[in-house]
Predict the structure.
Amino acid sequence: MRISVKCSSAIHVLLMIAMLPSDYKITSEFLASSVGNNPVEIRKLLSSLKKAGIIDVARGPGGAVLKKKPADITLLEVYNAVDSASLDELVGVHEHPAPQCLFGRNIANLLTEPYAEIGEAVRLKMASITLEQLMIRLQEMEPGFHEFFAD
């Protein structure tokens, strides 16, 4: 009944790829240390992002780079790349309502339309938020960001 952490992990990874200086080797081990996940899971995310055309990954210790401008990468695109769950199932209905009860036998049909509307609203909102907007927000949250990476 919620968007999995794969999406936030992928956004975390994309922010690092987009914002770190070009001399940083963006490897799965490096990314995993920041995300707090293991490198195998990060490689799976990278593979999904690559298949979606969002990044390119060089074999070995070559690292990863964005294939698209941050302004052209939306949260919805990232979500669709890494999460197999459907936004239509963002809100679920309990599985075993009593069929002999007028409430139980109707609850799923009753909630189908409003839950579809909720899924569509989430989809539209995610499509309106870009990686570039998140990069700007992160820099606002961390005003000394650029100095941290200066020589």
Summary: DSSP finds seven helices and two strands in the chain. Helices lie at 5-19, 28-35, 39-51, 75-82, 107-127, 131-141, 145-148.
